[in-house]
């Protein structure tokens, strides 16, 4: 099965302490035999001058990633070459360890996934974005839809716009949920039903693991 997953940039370091960036963050379920990261894209069907294509040197899955429940759905990609940071490609700060986003917070999600729930709809070629709200964990925890049985509030976030039926969708996987100016979540999974909340990996839980892996793998 071909998965189309989106990649989000790394984290801000102390000024000039790290003059390059060679890690990106995505979802563990996006693991593939061979991954190439495309950065600085808007229209993925065109060869834009802003784009950088870099092969992945190493895929670092979270050791407790669970395929059955999609828990701990987070993966670091170490790139084979240094990313050139410019006006099209920048890093995004990550949250502080265990600093949770309050329910009701407005966030945005972006991706090249399908723009309609109909199974025949094609993925978008230009980047799409939607504004969503962080919901109370109970919206997913106590959801009558059995899809949410595996929701874990310590590692997952419940997000959506239930009134307008907006959500991330197939193909947006691995993309960032940006709240304020931080990447607080990673698109992970959800229900096929309309107006259902999306489930995102709670990035703040994984900061110690991310930092440990980056320290171990930095040349």
Automatic annotation (TrEMBL):
TM region(s), chain numbering: none
Matching InterPro entries: Peptidase_S1_PA, Peptidase_S1_PA_chymotrypsin, Peptidase_S1A, Trypsin_dom, TRYPSIN_HIS, TRYPSIN_SER
Domain Peptidase S1, chain residue ranges per copy: 22-215
Keywords of the record: Disulfide bond, Hydrolase, Protease, Serine protease, Signal, Zymogen
Cited Gene3D superfamilies: Trypsin-like serine proteases
Biological process annotations from GO: proteolysis
Name of the protein in its database record: Peptidase S1 domain-containing protein
SMART domains: Tryp_SPc (SM00020)
GO molecular function, a single term: serine-type endopeptidase activity
GO cellular component: cytoplasm
PANTHER family according to UniProt: GRANZYME B, KALLIKREIN-RELATED
